[in-house]
Structure formats: structure tokens, C-alpha cells
Design goal:
Distance between the termini: 28 Å
Number of domains: 2
Order of helices and strands: EEHEEEHHEEEHEEEEHEHEEEHE
Strand content: 25-35%
Number of helices: 7
Helix content: 10-25%
CATH class of the largest domain: Alpha Beta
Bound molecules: 2-[O-phosphonopyridoxyl]-amino-pentanoic acid
């Protein structure tokens, strides 16, 4: 019997293969050294149309990640964008979907010289609901620091970088929390394990700047752009750990997490411990935008059917 996250076909180097047959050899370089880049994209079904949210921006970041590492890819941006839409159609997806393009350094001899290895590309699309089951979550500030841009190019979305996130996430889960906030090496608030973070204080929304070493999140960018429509302002500034504790509202933003309120940090209640009014307003608007109900942002949506 198929599992709930499974679909029927996966796009593998330009052709479709049945879900169960999209396999790699154990000598695939990316399995050994984390030499892969990926994206996380959502598509939203509004009852009539399936809209991919900010497809071109995600494809651009995918190609930038490949460029930063110098991996090379045998497909154009147009081919990947088309491949994503074809994958949604081929799987006859008429529901909310998560899309995972993945480009990995493939089969070859042991070692770090990836120059001659093929970059294998996959596009996986699957029915998907919420990333966090709860409406509001409890997090801890991790004792693990976020990888610094002096160690790894953090703007690239690379599989190997996520061992840092997995350490922090597992530590949080094992201690009874839902997720972790990581500080950067300067001790400033950076981001979640797979989300950017925003904080509300006296009606203003604050978020760490790109220079804090965050991933340049597309959800974050979207909120910065649409917040003024709701009479809200997002200010990019460095945030201290202590400021989190006295925030009025706090929330994670990301493709998977969408907008997820944080109700407790390190055991301290945030605001009144409930989903705050600004978080709720942004979240409602975000779903109107992603479902194609706000004309102004139809520019961010790519119709599949
Ligand atoms: N920061 C990190 C470290 C991320 O992995 C992500 C996305 C974000 C921020 C948010 O970026 P965006 O808004 O562009 O999605 N994380 C992946 C996602 O699909 C999941 C990784 C487990 O949300």
C-alpha cells in the first residue's frame, strides 16, 4: 500500500519513472559528502486551480546554489520549471503539494573530486499538508550555532548544510520541544532549522538581515513585500536572544512551515501564549495570496492546469 507522502511518478533527468523506481546507487557521491542542492516549493489548490508559489524565484535560487558550488547542471531553468509543472500534471495532483527539486553529484569513485561526476536531477512532487501539526509551537534556543558563512556559503541550499539543522532539530525534539532557533557565531538570532524567524514588538515586525547568515527565504521576502498592504512594516535588524523572550509575537516563516506561531521559547511564554493578532492577519493574507485571491500577487503564481 502506498504511503501518504507518495505520488506516482518522479522526474529523473528529464524522464518520468515510477515512484518506487527512482533510485540511486550506494556509491552516489552526494550520499557520502552532502554534495547536493535542493529546493522546497509549494503549490496550492484552491478548488479550481493548482498554483505554484513563486516558481521562478525558487528555480533561480536552485541555479544559484548550483553555481555557488560549481556543480554544473545539464538542464536550463526553463526545462526545470517546465519539468516541475509536468510532474504535477503527470501525477494528476489536485490538492496542496510540496515539490522537491534535487540535484546531486552522482555515481563515481570514492573521493572529493566531483568535477567528472554527473549531476543527477530529480523532481519529486507529493501531496502535503502542514509541516507542524500544532497551530503554535514551543522551541528552544539551540546550543548548536548556525553554520557561518565563513565555513559554508549559507545562501546556497545544499543538502550537506542540513546536518547542522538535523543536530539542532533532534536535540530540540529529544528535549520535548517542537523545533529550535539557532544563533549565529556572533550570538545573534539567525533562523530556525528550516525556517526564517520574525518577531513582533510594539506593532512592528523585526527579522534578522541577510548579513546575519540566514537563508534568503522566499516566504520571508514575500512577507516583507506584502506586509504594507496590511498596514504593517518589517524591519531587518539583528536580534538578541533576550529580545525573543519579551516579544509580543514570534513566528517561523518558510515554505514548509508557512507562517507558524511560536508560543514559548526556552520555557518562557511569548505574549499571552496564544496566536497573536499580527501573526493571524499575516497568515490569513498569506493563504489568500497563495490561493490566487489577491490580484496584485497573481504575478507570484504559476497555474498548472
Ligand atoms: N531557512 C532555512 C535554513 C531553510 O531551510 C528554509 C526552507 C528557510 C529558511 C525558508 O526559506 P523559504 O521561505 O524560501 O522556504 N526550508 C525548507 C522548506 O521547504 C525545508 C527544509 C527542511 O521550507
Amino acid at each position: 500500500m502506498s504511503k501518504s507522502f507518495e505520488a506516482h511518478f518522479i522526474w529523473q533527468n528529464g524522464s518520468f519513472v515510477p515512484w518506487q523506481e527512482a533510485k540511486v546507487h550506494v556509491m552516489t557521491n552526494a550520499l557520502h559528502y552532502g554534495t547536493g542542492v535542493f529546493e522546497g516549493i509549494r503549490a496550492y489548490w484552491n478548488g479550481k486551480q493548482l498554483y505554484v508559489f513563486r516558481l521562478q524565484d525558487h528555480v533561480n535560487r536552485f541555479f544559484n546554489s548550483i553555481k555557488i558550488y560549481g556543480f554544473g547542471i545539464d538542464f536550463s531553468k526553463d526545462q526545470i520549471s517546465e519539468g516541475i509543472k509536468e510532474t504535477l500534471r503527470k501525477n494528476e495532483l489536485r490538492t496542496d503539494v510540496y515539490i522537491r527539486p534535487l540535484a546531486i553529484k552522482g555515481y563515481g569513485p570514492i573521493g572529493l573530486d566531483v568535477r567528472k561526476l554527473k549531476t543527477d536531477v530529480f523532481i519529486i512532487a507529493m501531496p502535503y499538508g502542514r509541516y507542524f501539526e500544532k497551530e503554535g509551537i514551543e522551541v528552544l534556543v539551540s546550543s548548536w550555532r548556525r553554520i557561518s558563512s565563513q565555513t559554508l556559503p549559507v545562501l546556497a541550499k545544499v543538502t550537506g548544510h542540513y546536518s547542522n539543522s538535523v543536530l539542532a532539530k533532534l536535540d530540540a525534539l529529544n528535549k520535548g520541544y517542537d523545533d529550535a532557533i539557532l544563533l549565529n557565531e556572533e550570538g545573534k538570532v539567525c533562523e530556525g532549522t528550516g525556517e526564517n524567524i520574525m518577531m513582533v514588538k510594539d506593532g512592528i515586525i523585526y527579522t534578522p538581515p541577510i548579513s546575519a547568515g540566514i537563508l534568503d527565504g522566499i516566504t520571508r521576502r514575500s512577507i516583507i513585500e506584502f506586509a504594507p498592504d496590511l498596514g504593517l512594516k518589517v524591519v531587518e535588524k539583528d536580534i538578541d536572544r533576550g529580545e525573543l523572550y519579551t516579544a509580543d509575537e514570534l513566528f517561523f516563516v518558510g515554505t514548509a512551515a508557512e507562517i507558524t506561531p511560536i508560543l514559548k521559547v526556552d520555557g518562557r511564554q511569548i505574549g499571552d501564549g496564544k496566536v497573536g493578532p499580527i501573526s493571524k492577519k499575516l497568515k490569513d493574507y498569506f493563504f489568500s495570496v497563495t490561493q490566487g485571491k489577491v490580484d496584485k500577487y497573481l504575478k507570484w503564481l504559476e497555474a498548472v492546469w
